[in-house]
């Protein structure tokens, strides 16, 4: 689908007294052309010149002389002297040397000066040797290290760059015996299926052709021409040579680099002397001329067999132009140049069809003294679409790009035009997706097409060729609006502008175009009006245009946009004299450029040859392969085989480039390798891609589909939006979630547009509570705030309503008046609620049973289709409507013998008993209990047994809360039930409410320390307990509280209930509650207890605290340096740290080892021959097999458990030691900052009050040291973290790295434990906070 469009051009004309141009080549280092003038009969010298661009006029090439020397004449066959000719001209940029091979045999080298090339007399000319008798052809290898010369006597010489003969070969008749060609007829019609009627005819052997070529010469072949062509890698060279001794035919001989004959070609009638080997190496191209006058390009494989052909497009009125032909492949094997007498044709192959993409005329400068001379054609070796054509009077160079002639994106029909010589293959992809090389319409013009342009509204197409221009109307036809065949409106001939080379065309306004042409040595942009059929004049004077583009369809201004050689982007107006306005500037010359206007801001997008995509001056991506621009998106493909979408913004700096994440980002989608964009159709929400082999693929990217659906919803086109969702399999919740309030206001419009009841059911059945605009279909356009986001604050505070129920209720409200027509939708709306409103749906059916039994049966069938029939049967039964239940049961697969007796028995019961039986059958025991109470109208044994059987105590208590007698009975039953379940506290409450204090005391006592106050209270009210028994209960509770370390509660019981003040004081001292101990001593006036009980308690507390603080200090001194040491080791040598050192030397595993036989390499060992640290978590390491590798594997659940135990222990020397030590330090700091600080503070105050100041000062000093140690430990173990923004960037970077490196691999077994440990250390929990320790001022603290 791509055409060749000119973006570079230049010309040079021979000036007197220089002779005619005889040869040319490229200096690839400077992109300059080396030309050779002469020798001729009147000028027996060779003038070597260099063509450079004129600084003021780049299209004008200036010549700078390089060297000049006399060329000796050669003797012709009749003995007369003739001027020598150049057979090969090659330039070596590394040595600034030009090498010329003359037909007479001279090998001439011209060495330029490195610092000042082109100065006359500076170049050194030397004839390094002479080959005899003559040279027929010569060609340098692609690596410039070898060149092959074919002499006039049939010798093939292989020479080095120093012109030493490496080897030689003689072309003889014996060469033809080398290859025994066997063709199996691939691609021949004999091997194709021709129908059953041709079966008998097809019995012949397809490997034997109907006609066997004998290799007869073409009538235009004099047998003198010889051609040499190298394969792209320089491994083989082919020689097309004719010798009478070789069967009197032309033979293509293939030699390897050592000069050994590899193969010869099969006989081909009409084969001529042209030959070009495709650089990719799969085909050699030659010329085959037929008796009827048509000429084919025949292809050969390296083994000499034919491999297809195509026919050249030769002007029927000028068959003489193809009398002499030459072939040349470009550097990347995409373009085949066919050089004729007066023109050069460029062919490109796609889908096995050869398109004529460009025809460059050179008739006016290809003649010498009235006779035709084949132009000298040369491709640039590094720029694939840059070439030079040198004819006797003139030399030109052109550069092309592969571009697509496409119509407008906005409101267009996906129009694409493909150039194939005189045929324009026109396909509107919105009408038909026709695969190339076919097209929907073939438009014929008079001459080979040069360029094509479309108007901004897509209603016109302009076709440019070297002889004129055509304007075609693009119209629609039929009710579907399909594109009709292009209709020719006007033609403007350009015969009066023969000296001009037409390059590009673009629309400036409807029926007005501007044409870029090369007039001799200057570029011109001229305006033309098709309506008046005249030229409006030259516009954009002085612009060195590179690309001429029609104004974008989003712009309100008419005109064209030009990118010049200074990278400026200029608009040329279509009015007046073509005023120019500079719109911007690219940072580099970008061959592919597209312009758009978004929110009144002009944006230029350009693509460089190396894949850099720019928006104005901003570089967006570096791996772009193609792009198009629509009214909302920039769409481009990447070398990673993705198609991506960028939402357009007025500020190019806000363009958000998506990542390579097709799984989660709607703006990225994977495509076939090498796919390129052809066009985009926003109205169809699709794009067309072309694959490398030429086939087309139309896809519907999620970004375009979602953008289209959102636009349709905003326009209230719910019918089209629904159809798109259904076709593209988009969740239909988007129809509501994108504009919730709008949808609820237009439910009637939605139902009218969708119409089909089945479609409405489909919509209702797909509803879910999830807001898809916040999950799977999040709007990726920056700055877009959805309706749900705008109401987020209100939703967080207000009670959340069910989205499904809201929509279903709105639909039901709209369908009230259409009950008969939309009965199916009404049933569906009830059933699709969350939870399903089956009862409401069945009520609808029940009401229909009274009105229309037929409708009722239809409704039952539909609801049975939507819901499980067994569940529906139970719901119908719960409505106590036996007729409805029977109707539903008849729709099920149940045996009537299963449900009919049950329903009949229900008919015989009174209503209350029937309702009780139904609820009990459906396990609705609470409702059944209500009915049972109504039946008995009082509390009965049946009620009591039913309550006990189904444990309905809470409902029964609520039911009989106003009846004291049944309430006490049920409460007693419930208390007994709770006691049996060991819920002693709740049972105690129940017994206490009934006044059963003995049972309550027993339950509270069993409840333990949680109910000691209640237990003491109920025991005091139990008259059956003696004082000793109450004392025993209090002692039991005190022991339980002592085990729970609730020292305050123990002291309360001892002091108040057991009258043991000494035990109370001891308990308070153990709990560091010294102030309470002082208060009790004062309360009971027992000062003697200060020395007998309080002081010993203080000393015990002092001893415990000092021991604890000393342990903390020693732990900090041991663990913190070890943590720092481990981190240094991990940083210096992570491989040794995570993999462990090998105690048996460097050789381990299957490679050979020193591991003793009696040593078992268990999985816990750090000796590992499996994946290393750098591959273990990426999944990219090589698979290690063998006994050792299987033994050390962590991939089993057994090893995972073992590894988890190792991690929990954190033994020294393992990879889990650091994590264990960090957690240990964290626990220590939290313990010190938690209870220890408060306990020490209370202890210090108590010691001071008892006059033990030295002990108080000692424990306070020790506590201060521990707190300072904790502060240092926190600073070293948890270094100062960076600010939140840097942390977030690091986390995002880490997540991104995890996605790219082994994203599809997750560790298992023991590896997962180690991975979790490393991840936990990386993330951390946050460093603990250590507050400053305030010393007591009475002790001199500050």
UniProtKB/TrEMBL annotation:
Q: In which pathway does it act?
A: tRNA modification; 5-methoxycarbonylmethyl-2-thiouridine-tRNA biosynthesis
Keyword Membrane carried by entry: no
Domain ELP1 three-helical bundle spans what residues? 1089-1276
Entries under SUPFAM superfamilies matching the protein: Tricorn protease domain 2 (SSF69322)
Mention one GO biological process in which this protein takes part, according to its record.
Answer: tRNA wobble base 5-methoxycarbonylmethyl-2-thiouridinylation
Asked whether the keyword Lipid metabolism is assigned, the reply is no
Q: Which GO terms describe its molecular function?
A: tRNA binding
- List each copy of the ELP1 TPR domain by range: 915-1079
Q: Bias category Polar residues: which stretches?
A: 1183-1196
Q: Where is this region: Disordered?
A: 1183-1212, 1280-1312
Which family would the database say this protein is a member of? Belongs to the ELP1/IKA1 family.
Q: This protein is called what?
A: Elongator complex protein 1
